[in-house]
Amino acid sequence: MRRPTVERMEWAYRTAGETLAALRAGEVSSVELTEASIARIERLDGEINAVCVPDFERARAAARDADAARGRGEGGALLGLPVMVKESYNIAGLPTTWGIAQFEDYVPDEDSLPVERLKAAGAVVVGKTNVPLNLGDWQSYNEIYGTTNNPFDLGRSPGGSSGGSAAGLAAGYSTLALGSDIGGSLRVPAHFCGVYAHKPSLGVVAARGHVPPGVPALPVEGDLSVVGPMARTARDLTLLFDVMAGPDPLTLAQAYTLNLPAPRHDRLADFRVLVLEEHPLIPTGAAVRAALERVAVALEKAGARVQRDSSLVPDLAEGAAVYSKLLMSFLAARMPAEVHEGLGSVAAQLDPDDDSLSANRIRGMVISYRDWLAANARREEHRRQWRELFAEFDAVICPITPTPAFPHDHGQDWEGRRLDIDGVAHPYGDQIIWAGLATMSGLPATAIPADRTDDGMPIGVQVIGPMFGDRTSLRLAELLEEEIGGFQQPPLA
User: Fold this and answer.
1) What is the CATH number of the domain that holds 172?
2) Side-chain-facing half-sphere of 290: CA atoms under 13 Å
3) Among 3, 30, 297, 415, who pairs with 66 as Cys (CB 3.0-4.6 Å)?
4) 252 pLDDT exceeds 80?
5) Mean pLDDT, residues 397-421
6) pLDDT at 8
7) Residues facing 399 on adjacent strands
8) What is the pLDDT of residue 103?
9) Tell me, what's the pLDDT at 337?
10) Measured between alpha carbons, how far is 211 from 112 in angstroms, rounded to an integer?
């Protein structure tokens, strides 16, 4: 029987699991899949601009090698599957700029560890995806590569900083992609583009080589920051997570094997879920509230125990303030000295009674080691409280940001922007609050599509699990996908 053509089999929106099964069965080759991926990028990406660094010729060669390996009887978890990688990961021979114009020509000479693992599993990298300047926004635009648009509405943000990866997945360029997260950079793009993403527990996925241009790729894990998988289905998300997870072999961690606990439950009816809708520092928009309620009702109908409040929840306002300080102290460590000195003057002029998130962000940029230790001690107290909460609940479901994807907004500096929440303007930066809930304490969080707005924009929510309970939040995401549905194609595709 003649092998069906790639076009007839419509591979763009098949799952990774289905595509890998077809590869194993000989129904399609890696070369065919890769050519289909390249053709789709070339056809659609002029408007979307998700793939900022194509790597098509090396992808074609890798696909030929994958087909040859399969012909020899060799295997691999992702053998022959086209994937995309966020621009911020080092890939030998390709630019790593983080959107910083002065590093436009910087090209590392070795792959990051997550990319090594991807290639070792047989994946075919078709290109790198766009990011905001220095990965510092919930939009994805920079002077080098321009603006990435949301496939559901080209006038809106696809999220950031993994916006190119999310937009490419939504547009059907590949089934899997790599991203990273410190302030929602995996979860916000997934939320805005209707796909799945997983922020791993801190330290579960070694990130060596996910570093700014020119920074040595050393086996040092940064505070708060993680790398993780993105996909269009929850099961595919777990597939890629399993490829990425593990300690760095260059550290003492090589002395042990990472064994994450199995999911706490395998049926929705057995889960104990806390649904959080309110935050004391920022309102939740009506569309996101409706999505949370849709998930809560589905859980209740399936027999899960659902609560909408609990005295065990740590102080959310204090947590946001501590997170702001820890986050900005980490980010400011790489600022030029003259910029850092200027921030010291700004911080000195703050009203001592000003406990706003903006003020705490500025204080965090110039925090002393003594004050950092005090903030870290508060973090440890929050971690203790989360452990107590997760003795009573298996997961917390809450917003990722207060709104669906917003229109592109490049006109002002970050602090000067405003976010419209149901007609009321709020500080743009304060939307980080919900992402910080998991990040500050290092908890795993899985972003899932939950609903659509009246005009068709995706709305996601996050499933937060106990520390190292990655498989619990991932499994709950799979079960919810079966119950409420998941990714839906954008109209342009």
Assistant:
1) 3.90.1300.10
2) 11
3) 30
4) no
5) 94
6) 41
7) 461
8) 97
9) 72
10) 9
Known catalytic residues?
86, 161, 185
Same domain, 368 and 227: no
Given a cut of 60, whether residue 308 has pLDDT beyond it is: yes
In terms of domains, do 45 and 178 share one?
Answer: yes
Range of the structural domain that residue 17 is part of: 6-255
The confidence score (pLDDT) of residue 1 equals 31
Least confident piece of the model among 66-70, 252-256, 306-310, 473-477? 252-256
366 and 237 in a common domain: no
Integer CA distances (angstroms), 87 to 98, 124, 144, 232, 395, in order: 7, 16, 12, 20, 32
Residue given tokens 């703050």 in the structure block = 350
DSSP 3-state helix, strand, coil percentages of the chain (rounded to 5)? 40, 15, 40
Give kind and range of the element (H or E) at residue 209: none
pLDDT of residue 147: 98
In total, how many domains does the chain have? 2
Domain boundary among 380, 403, 434: 380
Same domain, 234 and 331: no
Q: How long, in residues, is the chain?
A: 493
pLDDT at 139 over 80: yes
- Range with the lowest mean pLDDT among 4-8, 116-120, 164-168, 316-320? 4-8
Q: Domain for residue 134, yes or no? A: yes
Instruction: Give the three-class secondary structure for 437.
Output: helix
Asked which of 208, 234, 255 is the last residue of a domain, the reply is: 255
For residue 442, tell me if it sits in a domain: no
Residue 448 has a CB neighbour count (10 Å cut-off) of 32
Q: Are strands 395-399 and 445-452 parallel, antiparallel or unpaired?
A: unpaired
Q: Which amino acid is at 95?
A: P
Tokens representing 252 are 């003492």
Alpha helices in 157-258 (DSSP H): 163-170, 187-193, 234-244
* Residues 5, 277: Cα–Cα separation, whole Å: 47
Q: What is the Cα Rg of the chain in Å?
A: 22
d(CA 168, CA 44): 10
322 closest CA partner among 434, 440, 444, 443:
440
pLDDT tens for each residue of 17-61: 999 999 999 999 999 999 999 999 999 999 999 999 999 999 999
Mean pLDDT of 194-211: 97
Q: Is residue 373 part of a domain?
A: yes
Same domain, 49 and 122: yes
Average pLDDT, the chain: 94
Q: Is residue 137, in this structure, part of any structural domain at all?
A: yes
Please, what is the Cα angle at 470 between 467 and 475, to 5 degrees? 135
Mean pLDDT of 304-332: 95
For residues 436 and 286, give the distance between their C-alpha atoms in angstroms, rounded to a whole number: 21
Q: How far is CA 10 from CA 15, 40, 170, in A?
A: 11, 11, 15
